[in-house]
Amino acid sequence: GENVEQHPSTLSVQEGDSAVIKCTYSDSASNYFPWYKQELGKRPQLIIDIRSNVGEKKDQRIAVTLNKTAKHFSLHITETQPEDSAVYFCAASRNSGANSKLTFGKGITLSVRP
Amino acid sequence: DGGITQSPKYLFRKEGQNVTLSCEQNLNHDAMYWYRQDPGQGLRLIYYSQIVNDFQKGDIAEGYSVSREKKESFPLTVTSAQKNPTAFYLCASSTGHLSGANVLTFGAGSRLTVL
Predicted confidence band at A95 (pLDDT cuts at 50, 70, 90)? Predict the structure, then answer.
C-alpha cells in the first residue's frame, strides 16, 4: 500500500518568512495529492490539492509543487502570518473512483513566531 | 459548522465496554470515512464506505465495527477488543464521484477516553 512521509515533523519560522513542507510517497500510481490544515482544536480542512498531470498549483500565499519522478510534493507558504500556525497533513491516493482512499502523512506542526 | 456532525464530542468509557460514535452528514455525499488521530501518528483510516450497505476495512480496522444503513449515517462502534481505544476520532465524507472522489469534509471529532 501507499506510504506517505512528511519532513520535518516541526517547523518554526519568523512571521513574514516563507515555509516549505515536504512529503514523499511510495506508490507511483498515486495521482492525487491534497494538503489539509488543522488548527488547534479544530477539524482538518483542505487548503490546496494537486493532480499528477500538473507540476505546480498556486492559491494566493500557498502553492504546491509535485515531482513525480522523485515521488515528492511540497507545500510552500509565503509571507507567513501567525494564523498559519497549525498542523499540516499531506496525503496521496489513486483517484480511481470506487474504493480509492487517502493515505495521510503524520503531520507537521508549523509555528509562526510574531 | 454544518454539513457533517459527530456526537458525542467527549466520551468516557470503562474498559470492557463497547461504545458507538455517531456521524451524520447532510451533504448528500456518497462516501464516508472514519479516521483515528493520535499525537504524532497523523490520520489513520479505520473504515470507509463508498455506498449504502457496503463498507471496507481501512488500515487499522481491528477492534472496530461500522454500519451504513442510510446514506447520511455512518456510526462507528469501538469494541472491547480494541486494545488502545483512547484517541480522537474523526468522521469524514466525500462526493465519491471520480472528479471529487477524495476531497474530504471532516466532522469536528469525538474524543474517547477509556478509564
Answer: low
